[in-house]
Specification:
By secondary structure, the protein is an alpha+beta fold. The chain is built from 35 helices and 31 strands. α6 packs across α8, α24 crosses α25 and α29 packs across α30. The radius of gyration is 52 Å and the shape is flat. Involved in directing the movement of organelles along actin filaments. GO terms for molecular function: actin filament binding; ATP binding; calmodulin binding; microfilament motor activity.
Length: about 1100
């Protein structure tokens, strides 16, 4: 067991020193802040809710705790579950695990972890896995129908649950039985601010498909239902739609048929629709107030869905039949009474539906009769509650916790006494607070508070909460654990916190003040017989089965048992069940009210610690001996403290322990007692002394081990270095000799080779002239070259300029010559076309010298033949293509795609648009280029569509919609053009300042045929003005804008192809960034 070594704080509060509330809270806070949420009190587990997922669960940890004893590892819920399961499996002792705590303390999650651990460690097999799956899948179903969001907890259990899991002799689960306690059915009709109704209502509306909602006559909007809190319809971290699918799947796994699932959802929808039944004031003929249904649609839909007569349901809601032995009297209900009856019906339907679901689950998981079985019970029930306004619910909850505390004390002391008896140690009476007097105050059959409440409910005459309180004041006026305003006045005590309608009980966890208002109504929990009979008459199988008392054949005038009597009976059965089993306790604590991770409120935890009686638990555990352990593990841990037992001990375990403690002065006979199999230590101080001595001894032994290890390591290292040095020297000398021998051998062989060569040359010189080899090689090479050229002559390709075939070189040495011959031949074939084009064009200063050489070459008959085949239009196209090549080849990325595409000139259908033809004028001649361009606004970067017309004298920009000339630019005014090197259509027309248009500034345009447009514009300017148009290719250029200049910077976008959509972005007042 880990005590101080490597632990955070004290892992077992039994060993806490000093034993005070402050030190206990400080220890819990220290462990919680270091994410150690579990702490022991002996074999009791204290769990502090972390409000986050911690990496301490899963198969790896299950395996670890399965293979270890309770105190061998850190405190964990798996350790407690493992002890319970191992005791059940190997000792045949039925177990129960009691989980208590406030709402939001993590009780539901703790019960899930216990069940998941048991499911993981028990047997395997198809049938066993099926049973385990059914037991685990019962949780989401019960959570959906029994849990709700409260102010303190988003998934608060609003009922108590006790599950008996039954196992066979091998420890494999056979089935189980679930018992539920006191469902908070008042939540069905009313919720506090910030809280929700039960989860199933929201899951149904969010997760059901449209077809199912239509069948249930529901709408998806939660705001349309009176029983649902409109302020809180969703919970953070909770997916109602997904949870609804999980609930349906779980019900199928448990064994619900599709028909039964549909019945359950229909009854759930019935509860929602009852809340929307609106009641209005009416008056009878004699003037007595009555009530009626203001909107008959809701009642009619309920009748259609449940097979009810809507008039029968309306009559049952708005009137009441009082039956005696002789006659029946029908009384009309006013609106308040009718609303009470409606709400009572909704609460009863939901409560009975929940009980039916629990019973249906029990039918699926029950064990056959006659099978021998072992039982493990898991109790997940409300913790002790002290609210600002405590009512009947808090009274019965705290009564249940008083009984559980009584069970804990009695079973703990009983277990202690039995252990002392087994070990042969005398039992000493332990002084502790016995809360039996409080339990008797509440549950006594004749003089208990519950008995008085039942008596008051059954008494004829005027009965009220005030008369009930008066009876309590009279009966318990001198009881030491009962207070009220009357008893305080009698004792001349003044307490302003005590109301006139209140009484106070001094519970084991503190004083609780209860308000008696509604005690009588909540204890009666009556449902008018008319409503029961109306529900029984329904044709819906499930709804009819929920109200068997509505059957006229089974009608009884006997009053049903009260809620208090039923709960008292259930608690009595539960206590009897717990007394027959070995208990295991999990005390759950909520660290803060805001469900925030890492926050620890000492005041809140201190209050819960008092409710749970943690300090009382520690005192009971420490009443006898604070620590006990078997001789063998104790000897293994502390045998190093004695020279007699260290390093080896060959005697018995007990003798070894006696030897160790006999040599330690602090371990006196008053502090230590030897049992039959265990050593008992009275005070934690003695244990801490042993731990400190062990720590010091470990340091000494560690130093000794380190000293011996260092010496051994140095000696070993020296021996290894010596052996290595000898080995390296041996290898080095051998290697050096081998290298020396190799060099000598190579030298001898070289000398021999030279001598043999000199002799051979001397012998053969007389037979061959010097230089014969060079002559022979020259002859062979010339022969090969002649063969290559003659073969090429006979295999020349055709003279067509489109034929690019060429014979391959027969030898690699002719590859370069073959490529040069191929180039010359192809150039010779292209002479006619080049000559014809070049002689017809005026001289270009930019033409390379090779073009001028070709232009001056002589004309062949073949050239003339090819030229004569060309039409004037084709010659003109070739001239334009050649001009485009000279202007843009190797400069702009848009040029290569434009080469195979013929220049059309007209891209807008100019012939079919007479308005545009009139703009050009007849004296202008034909239109050279007509297309739609985009004009870039230099102020904001936006673009607008324009039609550009290029004639021999002007560039005309018109509105694409109105066909009116916006701008007419003479070609003599065009000073130059700037274009980018990318594959875009952006270009800028730089205008001279002396022109009328130039005063407005330059034009920034985008064209889809920029190569063709600028080529035609270049030739038109050359023809008109006899000057060459400067075309600048750059990614950054300046554009004049009235009296200022704007720098245009063009960049490629992430697509990088340059033909995407242009994006213009203004950069200050003198910059424009264009992304292409």
């Amino acid at each position: 067991m880990t005590l101080l070594e490597g632990s955070i704080g004290v892992e077992d509060l039994v060993l806490l020193e000093p034993l005070e509330e402050e030190s206990m809270l400080k220890n819990l806070q220290l462990r919680y802040e270091n994410k150690e949420i579990y702490t022991y009190i002996g074999n009791v587990l204290v769990s502090v809710n972390p409000y986050q997922q911690l990496p301490i669960y899963g198969p790896e940890f299950i395996t670890k705790y399965q293979e270890c004893t309770f105190y061998e590892l850190k405190p964990h819920i798996y350790a407690l579950a493992n002890v319970a399961y191992q005791s059940l499996k190997f000792r045949d002792r039925d177990q129960c695990i009691l989980i208590t705590g406030e709402s939001g303390a993590g009780k539901t999650e703790a019960s899930k972890l216990v069940m998941s651990y048991v499911a993981a460690v028990c047997g395997k097999g198809e049938q066993v896995n099926s049973v385990k799956e059914q037991l685990l899948q019962s949780n989401p179903v019960l959570e959906a129908f029994g849990n709700a969001k409260t102010i303190r907890n988003n998934n608060s259990s609003r009922f108590g649950k006790y599950m008996d899991i039954e196992f066979d002799f091998k420890g494999s689960p056979l089935g189980g039985v679930i018992t539920n306690y006191l469902l908070e059915k008042s939540r069905v009709v009313k919720q506090l601010k910030g809280e929700r109704n039960f989860h199933i209502f929201y899951q149904l509306l969010a997760g059901a498909d449209a077809q199912l909602l239509a069948a249930l006559k529901l709408e998806r909007d939660t705001g349309g239902y009176a029983y649902l809190n409109r302020e809180v319809s969703r919970v953070d971290g909770m997916d109602d739609a997904s949870n609804f699918k999980s609930v349906q799947s779980a019900m199928t796994v448990i064994g619900f048929s599709e028909e039964e699932i549909r019945w359950v959802l229909e009854v759930t929808a019935l509860v929602l629709k009852l809340g929307n039944v609106k009641l209005s004031d009416e008056f009878q003929a004699n003037g007595i107030p009555a009530s009626g249904i203001s909107d008959a649609r809701g009642v009619r839909e309920i009748g259609e869905m449940m097979g009810l007569d809507s008039k029968e349901l309306e009559r049952a809601l708005c009137s009441r039949t009082m039956a005696t032995a002789k006659e029946k009297v029908v009384t009309a209900l006013n609106v308040v009474q009718a609303q009470y009856a409606r709400d009572a019906l909704a609460k009863n339907i939901y409560s009975r539906l929940f009980n039916w679901i629990v019973n249906r689950i029990n039918e699926s998981i029950k064990v056959g009769i006659g099978e021998k079985k072992k039982v493990m019970g898991v109790l997940d029930i409300y913790g002790f509650e002290i609210l600002e306004d405590n009512s009947f619910e808090q009274f019965v909850i705290n009564y249940c916790n008083e009984k559980l505390q009584q069970v804990f004390i009695e079973l703990t002391l009983k277990e202690e006494q039995e252990e002392y008896k087994r070990e042969g140690i005398p039992w000493k009476k332990v002084d502790y607070f016995d809360n039996g007097i409080i339990c008797n105050l509440i549950e006594h059959n004749q003089r208990g508070i519950l008995a008085m409440l039942d008596e008051e409910c059954l008494r004829p005459g005027v009965v009220s909460d005030s008369t009930f309180l008066a009876k309590l004041n009279q009966l318990f006026s001198k009881h030491s654990h009962y207070e009220s305003k009357v008893t305080q006045n009698a004792q001349r005590q003044y307490d302003h916190t005590m109301g006139l309608s209140c009484f106070r009980i001094c519970h084991y966890a503190g004083k609780v003040t209860y308000n008696v208002n509604s005690f009588i109504d909540k204890n009666n929990d009556l449902l008018f017989r008319d409503l029961s009979q109306a529900m029984w008459k329904a044709k819906h199988p499930l709804l009819r089965s929920l109200f068997p008392e509505g059957d006229p054949k089974q009608a009884s005038l006997k009053r049903p048992p009260t809620a208090g009597a039923q709960f008292k009976s259930s608690v009595a059965i539960l206590m009897k069940n717990l007394y027959s089993k070995n208990p295991n306790y999990i005390r759950c604590i909520k660290p803060n009210e805001h469900q925030q991770r890492g926050q620890f409120s000492r005041e809140l935890v201190a209050t819960q610690a008092r409710y749970l009686g943690l300090l009382e638990n520690v005192r009971v555990r420490r009443a006898g001996y604070a620590f006990r352990q078997g001789y063998k593990p104790f000897l293994e841990r502390y045998r190093l403290l004695s020279r007699s037992t260290w390093p080896r001990w060959n005697g018995g375990d007990r003798e070894g322990v006696e030897k160790i403690l006999g040599e330690l002065s602090a371990c006196t006979s008053e502090e230590v007692t030897f049992g039959k199999t265990k050593i008992f230590i009275k005070s934690p101080k003695t244990l801490f002394y042993l731990e400190e001595q062990r720590r010091l001894r470990i340091q000494q032994l560690a130093t000794l081990i380190q000293k011996i290890y260092r010496g051994w390591r140095c000696r070993t290292h020296y021996q290894q270095m010596r052996k290595s040095q000898i080995l390296i020297s041996s290898w080095f000398r051998g290697t050096m000799q081998k290298k020396r021998y190799g060099k000598m051998k190579a030298s001898v062989l070289l000398i021999q080779a030279f001598v043999r060569g000199w002799k051979a040359r001397k012998d053969y010189r007389k037979y061959f002239r010097s230089g014969a080899a060079l002559t022979l090689s020259s002859f062979i090479y010339k022969s090969l070259a002649q063969k290559f050229l003659l073969g090429l002559k006979n295999n020349l390709p055709s003279t067509s300029i489109l034929d690019k075939k060429w014979p391959a070189a027969p030898y690699k040495c002719f590859t370069t010559a073959n490529q040069e011959l191929q180039r010359l031949y192809h150039q010779w074939k292209c002479l006619p076309l080049s000559f014809h084009i070049s002689v017809s064009l005026p001289p270009f200063p930019a033409l390379p010298p090779s073009s001028m050489i070709i232009a001056s070459a002589p004309t062949h008959s073949q050239c003339k033949k090819f030229r004569d085949q060309l039409s004037p239009k084709q010659v003109e196209v070739l001239r334009e293509k050649l001009c485009a090549s000279e202007l843009f080849k190797g400069k702009k990325a848009a040029y290569p795609p434009s080469v195979p595409v013929p220049f059309r000139g007209d891209y807008i259908g100019l012939r079919g648009n007479p308005k545009l033809q009139k703009l050009t004028g007849r004296e202008e001649g034909p239109v050279l280029m007509a297309e739609t361009v985009r004009k870039v606004n230099r102020g904001n970067g936006k673009t607008s569509s324009r039609i550009l017309l290029l004639t021999k004298g002007h560039v005309i920009l018109t509105d694409s919609k109105k066909s009116q000339a916006k701008t007419v630019i003479g070609l003599e005014s065009v000073a130059g053009v700037s274009v980018t090197s990318f594959q875009d259509g952006l270009f800028c027309l730089h205008l001279s300042e002396i022109s009328s248009v130039g005063s407005k500034g330059d034009f920034l345009l985008v064209s889809e045929h920029v190569v063709e447009l600028l080529t035609k514009m270049y030739r038109a300017v050359l023809d008109t003005t006899q000057r060459q148009l400067p075309i600048t290719v750059a990614e950054q250029f300046s554009v004049k804008f009235k009296e200022s200049n704007v720098t245009v910077k063009v960049t490629q976008g992430p697509r990088g192809n340059g033909n995407g959509k242009l994006s213009c972005k203004k950069k200050g007042s003198h910059g424009l960034e264009v992304t292409v």
